[in-house]
Amino acid sequence: MPGWTDLHVHLGSQSSPQSYSEGFRLDDVDYAFRSVDYAKKTLMAGFTSVRDLGGEVSPHLRDAINQGLVSGPRIWAAGKSIATTGGHADPTNGYNDALSHLIGPPGPTEGVINSIDDARQAVRQRYKEGSDVIKITATGGVLSYAKSGDAPQFTVEEVKAIVDTAKDYGYRVAAHAHGEEGMKRAVLGGVTSIEHGTYMSDEVMKLMKQHGTWYVPTIYAGRFVADKAKIDGYFPDVVRPKAQRIGALIQQTAANAYKNGVKIAFGTDMGVGPHGDNAREFIYMVEAGIPAPVAFQAATIRAAEVLGVDDQGVIEVGKRADIVAVPGNPLEDIQQVMKVDFVMKDGAVFRTPEA
Questions:
Q1: Which of 14, 73, 83, 313 could tie 300 with a disulfide, CB 3.0–4.6 Å?
Q2: What range does the domain containing 304 cover?
Q3: Is residue 240 part of a domain?
Q4: Residue 216 belongs to some domain of the structure
């Protein structure tokens, strides 16, 4: 079948109980070396393309892969996510007063905005840094060091400013969003996709259909954090209740979205879980009542639509030679997706049954 695309990964990191302290100890170079391993694991799992939604090393990893220096999937890199002060991607969340005063308040260069002008500047900074796509955190998040996981974090006007400026550079905008109000504002502001969508209401689904907005469920991430939240000490105290509450809901949201005709594309939020396990999302989609053929389309031709490209996602003359194979029939046994034994990207073979 065509090579798979994961529309939501973070190749520069992988969560663990040490992740929070590592942010103070490790440099970008450390994360870059790790990302090489994560990228190879992702490719060998059958994912020939990814959209990396947040991480400073991703544009550089993309370039290294494109130059043939390391092996990995084709990357659409967001670079730094765009947030508001105290929002999900504010890099100073959880800092004590002394450290916050020492560093100073982050601004558009760091991806933190508080006005329409800031919004425009942040997008232009992402362009300067070589991004391919823009990621905003339209609501709170699960793993950030902040109490709310679903409160809205941009005005509609700020989202529109981001989307309009992104269009100047040919960029599309993906919106991390758990809460209903933040999703509404993101859709009305013109984003291409909603990521996670935990508390997606019928009203939000209707809006998404009206605006042609895609939904990338990331069921894997929800199940992973809900499971890890059962372990004492795995997450900080401020994170654990969010992981318990929000994580368990995403699979049902995906089921509801499919039943209501929302356009669904494939994404895992891998980096929350272990890189290379991406295909398990197919299993979770099928468990949610999404037919296997629809799930595979979500990771191929539909994912290409989200990216705005027409040269991949199908096996056809003139298209990219991206192919993945498994030993059995995944339409009859979805567990076959975990047994990938052949991977080709751009005509180059990276995995064979003998390897």
A1: 313
A2: 1-79+266-275+292-355
A3: no
A4: no
Model pLDDT for residues 82-102, shown as the tens digit of each residue: 999 877 766 666 665 666 666
Is the confidence at residue 251, as pLDDT, over 80?
Answer: yes
Please tell me the distance from the alpha carbon of residue 42 to that of residue 46, in angstroms, as a whole number.
Answer: 7
Is 244 or 180 the better-scoring residue by pLDDT? 180
Rounded Cα distance between 90 and 219, Å, is 24
Report the pLDDT averaged over residues 62-72.
98
Q: Are 217 and 254 in contact (CB under 8 A)?
A: yes
Q: How far apart are CA 19 and CA 247, in angstroms?
A: 18
Neighbours of 184 (CB within 10 A): 19
Specify the number of domains making up the chain: 1
Q: How far is residue 205's CA from residue 213's CA, in Å, rounded to a whole number?
A: 9
pLDDT bucket at 244, cuts 50 / 70 / 90: confident
Q: What is the DSSP letter of 68?
A: T
List Cα–Cα distances, 343 to 185, 249, 316, in angstroms.
40, 33, 17
Bridge pairing between strands 342-345 and 348-351:
antiparallel
255 Cβ partners below 8 Å, 6+ apart?
288, 289, 290
Give the whole-number percent of the chain exceeding pLDDT 70: 92
